[in-house]
Write a sequence for this structure.
């Protein structure tokens, strides 16, 4: 394999090697900047296929958060987002589940919320990371559900207006605002 092929990451072993180098370099930088926070960089095995390898600083599951569709996880999410902001950015992995968010979230600069997503199929339940918003949706003034600073993102997640969630296992209409 020549150098350009390695740079294009056509061969999966090279992708893993470069991913590992990225994890190690970011881990070193994080430790040098923050003394009381230990990032948990790891390669995530996602439930659904992705076009890339998912490397996350934190997974909400590591902090006891479950997407049970009942428990409000706003505080845990915001705490982890704030910790990522303190170390200069990172990825918060949120696995498949229904996450109730009754407050508002602020994504500091350089944070990515990474979920799991499967293309919806008509007539079948929507699956993946579902954020059920109960606050700040469709507001004309006041605080929005999610406020993002520069270079922040949400990827592979489905947003729903929580209070209009059906009791049925089939979720038919996402609400984006």
């Amino acid at each position: 394999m020549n150098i350009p092929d390695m740079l294009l990451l056509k061969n999966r072993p090279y992708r893993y090697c470069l991913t590992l180098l990225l994890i190690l370099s970011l881990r070193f930088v994080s430790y040098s900047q923050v003394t009381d926070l230990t990032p948990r960089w790891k390669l995530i095995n996602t439930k659904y296929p992705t076009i890339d390898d998912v490397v996350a600083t934190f997974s909400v599951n590591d902090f006891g958060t479950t997407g049970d569709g009942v428990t409000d996880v706003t505080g845990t999410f915001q705490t982890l987002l704030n910790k990522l902001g303190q170390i200069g950015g990172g990825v918060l992995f949120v696995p498949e589940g229904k996450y109730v968010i009754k407050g508002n979230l602020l994504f500091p600069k350089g944070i990515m919320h990474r979920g799991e997503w499967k293309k919806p199929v008509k007539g079948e339940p929507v699956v993946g990371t579902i954020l059920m918003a109960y606050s700040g949706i469709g507001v004309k003034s006041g605080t929005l559900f999610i406020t993002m600073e520069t270079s922040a993102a949400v990827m592979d997640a489905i947003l729903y207006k929580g209070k209009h969630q059906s009791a049925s296992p089939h979720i038919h209409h996402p609400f984006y605002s």
User: Anything to note?
Assistant: DSSP finds three helices and twelve strands in the chain. Residues 1-10, 20-36, 165-177 have pLDDT under 50 and may be disordered. Residues 12-33 form the longest helix (22 residues). Residues 131 and 159 are 5 Å apart (CA to CA).
